Amino acid sequence: MRMRFILYTPGFKLFVLAVLISCSPPSKEQSIASSPEPVDKEASSQTKALFRNLITIGDEGILFGHQDDLVYGVYWKDVPGRSDVKDASGSYPAVFGWDISKIGQRPFNIDSVNFEKMKNWIRRAYQMGGINTISWHIDNPVTGGDSWDNTPAVYSILPDGENHEWYIGKLDLFADFLNDLKVDGIQVPVIFRPFHEHTGNWFWWGRGNCTAEEYTALWQFTVNYLKNVKKIHNLLYAYSTDRFKSEEDYLEFYPGDDFVDVIAYDDYHSIKTLDDKPELIRQLTTIVKLAEEKGKIAALSESGFETIPVDDWWTTVLLEGLTSDTTARKISYCMMWRNAWPDHHYAPYEGHPSAADFRKFKEDPYMLFLDEVPIDMYK
């Protein structure tokens, strides 16, 4: 702010300059946050722009997201241009979520989304100005079970582990997938969110199923392999826990500032009633403060209230929880989970009892859907 004062108030220039000179040097945290960069120093210009813009957009509003939004909804599937969010609100979400589970095993992922079509939807979201984020419900390499088979397995895919080559093969498939995401010769930037919700124990990479040292080693290997070996330079890396008790709890498995771009967490628990508001704000405030200290993006990376059984939930609970605290509201985006069928959906559809309230939620100046994103996120 004082730099702006110097530029626009010439009569006070010498006085303010003297104040600046007499100030103590900025702390390490201030230096980091003043000029943040992605962990991949060779990231594409579009990826670097996305990183910068996601950090600053938290001062203007929260981008709204939805998993598999363009693919299917309640009562429909694969209808070009359709979206339950758009049907209910008049606009697409600003953030589009995807998952690459089962890549290389079959043509479609865990939620029956065809991988080749997924590439087209990701390209389309980018062309519309939206942001893409990819999670990975990767199968258990020890048992062959799904990601919810919590038999310990992280140790086995680390370097020198018996399934390390298996994991390398999976990363190679993912790299091929990413290299195919091009629009006019530009690789589409993606927020990659692997090994999420690890503060819970339901995934094989979760707490109790691996040590913090194993998790950290796996994360660091994954980032280094993708950016240094496979030369993938269109990724931002999101560290995303489930609920957490404290800052120390959140950071127990943290792989380090050199390996994380997004400080995030998933929360399906602290968003159901206003009684949950203090807990939601506590966790949001924690990740925002950490992100500001470290020069990272803050996000609520996955959330929602299944079937939205409260007609005015969007404005009376979620909006209130996301925006009422001046620190907590600085998250860059929040993403609701998918709309699969009538008893498993997290966004309203046309005719849903909460659709009218959802439109009020969208009309709030702090919630940003695709038609309200104030800048080109890739410039």
Question: What's the CATH class label of the largest domain?
Answer: Alpha Beta
Give the overall pLDDT as a whole number. Answer: 92
**Strand portion, in percent?**
5-15%
Question: Spatial order of the strands in the main sheet?
Answer: 1-4-5-8-9-10-11-12
Low-confidence stretches: 1-33
H and E order: HHHHEEEHEHEHHEEEHEHEHEHEHE
Full CATH superfamily name of the largest domain? Glycosidases
- The N- and C-terminal alpha carbons lie at a distance of 23 Å
Shape: globular
Number of helices: 13
CATH architecture of the largest domain: Alpha-Beta Barrel
The overall number of domains is 2
Question: CATH topology of the largest domain, what is it called?
Answer: TIM Barrel
Helix content: 25-40%
- The tally of beta strands, per DSSP, is 13
Structural class: alpha/beta
Major sheet details = 8 strands, parallel, barrel
User: What integer value in Å does the Rg equal?
Assistant: 21 Å
Q: Could you name the key traits of this structure?
A:
about 375 residues, alpha/beta, TIM Barrel, eight-stranded parallel beta barrel, two-stranded antiparallel sheet, globular, disordered N terminus
Task: Explain the overall architecture.
There is one protein chain. By secondary structure, the protein is of the alpha/beta class. The protein folds into two domains: 1-35, no CATH class; 38-372, TIM Barrel (Alpha-Beta Barrel). Helices cover 36% and strands 14% of the residues. It is built from 13 helices and 13 strands. It has helices spanning 2-8, 13-22, 28-34, 45-57, 84-89, 115-127, 154-157, 164-179, 212-229, 247-251, 277-294, 313-323, 355-363; strands at residues 62-67, 72-73, 76-77, 95-99, 131-135, 182-183, 186-187, 190-193, 235-241, 262-267, 297-303, 333-336, 367-368. Strands 1-4-5-8-9-10-11-12 form an eight-stranded parallel beta barrel. Strands 2-3 form a two-stranded antiparallel ribbon. 44% of the residues are buried. Mean pLDDT is 92; it is low at 1-33.
